[in-house]
Amino acid sequence: MIVLHARPSPGFREAVDTIFAPGTVVHVDEAAPLDDVASDITALLHVLTPVTPEFIASAPKLKLIQKLGVGVNTIALDAARDHGVAVCNMPGTNSQAVAEMALSLMMAVLRRTCFFDARTRAGEGWTADPSELDAVGEIAGRTIGLVGFGHSAQRLAPVLAALGATVVYTARSPRDVPYEFLPLDRLLAQSDIVSLHIPLTNETRARLDPFAMKRGAVLVNTARGELVDEAQLVEALSTGHLRGAGLDVFAEEPLPRGHPLLGLPNAVLAPHIAWLTPETLVRSLTVAQENCRRLEVGEPLLHQVV
I need a surface site. Which of 18, 144, 207, 234 has the fewest CB within 10 A? Predict the structure, then answer.
């Protein structure tokens, strides 16, 4: 049994039925437990709901956990290894979508899109204090630091450069690219915009200190919320140390009601959808279907992490 644990849109369901044979994949809502299918499941198509050691231990036929995306921090990897369950991801399938979302968040913060949208809808778009326009800006002429230089950052960098930005980056090691490599501390101190493109690991958790960033800078996070200390981020935004932030990911998801980020006018927020486009889903499900086929016939799996 192949199970998709998600809350799929109608288009998502249609793509599943098109790429897999209709009726091949069992849909379980992401808010529901997998207890009812645990005894029969052989392959789990995983989105975001954590895959726990307890579930893995309760699923004797489980052979594959297929992440529809890149990050595997929501999967109990040690438990999967101990039970002989393969874990695969799919690097590159969502890179275009994530790069475009990062760019859109940068522009939304710089141009204060949400602020002016709300005022215009309220009939107050032309009555804002003229000083409000002093707080907008352009990509061109700014230094943009990319933390991590994987697939999404590689797609984003030339676009930013074409718009007139100076692109710098940090990664485990320098790459043969036309952008300057900087250690993280220098990148944070020099960049007008910092965009995160690294996985969440024990080494990267709370790696980014908002107060190490240049005063008046913008933070964009389409990677993982735990890369940043959210309490520090709220303080940096509230005190004006940071000009603004564009955030698609959070330490706790869904973001709880009353969370201080929800009340900050200089934060543009989205519900972890940077990766989620119909185009990404087709690419992702194609990889997933191929790995399920390979699992059935005993061929080596694509992008196996465990």
Answer: 18
Specify whether 180 is catalytic: no
Euclidean distance between CA atoms 270 and 259, whole angstroms: 14
**Is 252 annotated as catalytic?**
no
C-alpha span between 180 and 170 (Å, rounded): 9
pLDDT digits (tens, 9 = 90+) for 9-34: 999 999 999 999 999 999 999 999 99
Token pair of 126, please? 């032309």
Q: Which member of 5, 46, 112, 272 is catalytic? A: 272
Is residue 64 domain-shared with residue 162, that is, in the same domain? no
Tell me the two tokens of residue 281. 């889903």
81 a catalytic residue: no
Average pLDDT, the chain: 96
53 and 137 share a domain?
Answer: no
Mean pLDDT value of segment 184-191: 98
If one counts the domains in the chain, the total is 2
Band of the pLDDT at 106, cuts 50, 70, 90? very high
35 DSSP assignment: G
Distance CA 106, CA 195 (A): 9
pLDDT digits (tens, 9 = 90+) for 214-244: 999 999 999 999 999 999 999 999 999 999 9
Residues with Cβ < 8 Å from 198, sequence gap 6 or more? 147, 148, 150, 204, 207, 223, 227
How far apart CA 177 and CA 154 sit, in angstroms, is: 9
**Residue 302 within a domain:** no
Contacts of 209 (CB under 8 A, 6+ apart): 188, 229, 232
Identified catalytic residue from 253, 279, 296, 299: 253
The whole model's pTM is what?
A: 0.92
Could you tell me which residues come within 8 angstroms of residue 193 by beta carbon, excluding any fewer than 6 positions away?
106, 139, 142, 143, 144, 145, 165, 217, 218, 219, 220
Catalytic annotation, pick one of 5, 112, 155, 224: 224
Token pair for 88: 């695969």
